[in-house]
Design goal:
By secondary structure, this protein is of the alpha+beta class. The protein contains four helices and eight strands, in the order H-E-E-H-E-H-E-E-E-E-E-H. The strands form two sheets. A five-stranded antiparallel beta sheet has the order 7-6-5-4-8. Strands 1-2-3 form a three-stranded mixed beta sheet, with helices on one face. The protein starts with a helix and ends with a helix.
């Protein structure tokens, strides 16, 4: 039986051949897969035509790996505007973006920071907040995501 990691490697390889990047992968109920969610990143626009085509192609790829056609749902999408930042690469792709970070251990008694991501190092990120620049060790980040306030302000207004 093929492993989750092997499925991920096959999908990642396929996407690289398409000049796309695997942003995140969620395989539900392995080994009796009920759903596979593939989130793709591209410096260019990811549109409906691309995700529809990839949905069919990646479904075929997983079937070729030995899983029964129709036994699982394949969902291919971009990671979205307010995407979660889970890996070092996610932070690299988000340089210059406004992000919100929640910490395991507080810095100056504060657990949550919001600011522009201005630097990504091997172990640390630097946020420029309204009042200062804060260096945060990546291992101290409980969760992080891009904040898209312009959209939220437009919806509220």
């Amino acid at each position: 039986m093929i492993s989750e990691k092997e499925i991920q490697q096959q999908i990642d390889s396929y996407l690289r051949d398409e000049n796309l990047e695997l942003y995140d992968l969620n395989i539900v109920n392995f080994p009796n897969i009920s759903k596979i969610e593939v989130f793709i990143y591209s410096a260019d626009n990811v549109n409906l035509d691309i995700t529809t085509r990839l949905n069919k192609q990646l479904n075929r790829l997983v079937v070729d790996l030995g899983f029964e056609n129709g036994s699982f749902d394949m969902i291919v999408s971009s990671p979205g505007i307010e995407r979660k930042l889970k890996s070092f690469r996610h932070f690299q792709l988000s340089l210059g973006e406004l992000i919100k970070v929640k910490l395991f251990n507080p810095i100056n008694n504060i657990y949550t920071f919001e600011g522009d991501l201005i630097s990504v190092e091997e172990e640390n990120i630097v946020l420029k907040t309204d009042t200062s620049e804060i260096e945060i060790n990546i291992s101290n980040i409980k969760n992080a995501k891009i904040e898209f306030k312009k959209f939220k302000e437009r919806v509220k207004g």
